[in-house]
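Morning!

This is the sequence you dropped in the shared folder:
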Amino acid sequence: MPVTVVFTGLACGMLLTAVGLALWGGFRQVPRLSHAVQAIGWLAGVTLLIGVLLTWQENHNASIPAIRLMLMAALAALPNPHRRCASSWDSAIPILPALILAGVGLFWSPESVGTGLGHRPVAPMELAIVICGGIGARAMGEALSKIATLAPHVEWSFTAAYMLLTLLVGEMALVNLRQWGTLWGGASGESGLTGAWLIWSAAWLAPRQHVRLRAALTIVATLLLIVLATGR
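The structure's back. Tokens below.
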């Protein structure tokens, strides 16, 4: 059985446990259960990161979509220790993006992971997009929680993802300007990255009181980033 499947399966089980504990703690009003949920989130994120490192060490092929999904899920699973949850849903919903990413990675052609076929080195820009997608998935979890509860949250993940995305778009424009004399080369990947940045910029500029509008734009931009990060 590939290493990726083992570690992703363990992480999925941990994340499911965290969601269940968050909901149960909210209904039962169990004090300090949120600390256990955060600890499980950290453990799941670390498990995914270890799985990514071991799988890459085994076949040196980080271009496999399942590995990229694992890395994004790891970044999305690591909780914010300073976050305060107002309800059980507010605690459980931010875990869902990491759980979905890990679940998709678990069932994404597991037999092809570990074979070493189709080896292709990953460019720094591709890795940066994967990292941006993972941080964006964290912001998407917060956005989903905002839509469900309308509760205010610290938006550090939203800001971090937008800053990284802005740097990526700026670097892409500079490279095109140096090589081709134009800011935009017109490739499909460039179009997707520029589109994600424009949508995220609209979310950034939207009035703060329009919580659901900003959250919806964040979700759309993040989904586009995740698609780009998987290479599809």
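Headline: The chain has two domains: 1-120, 123-232.

More detail when I'm at my desk.
O.
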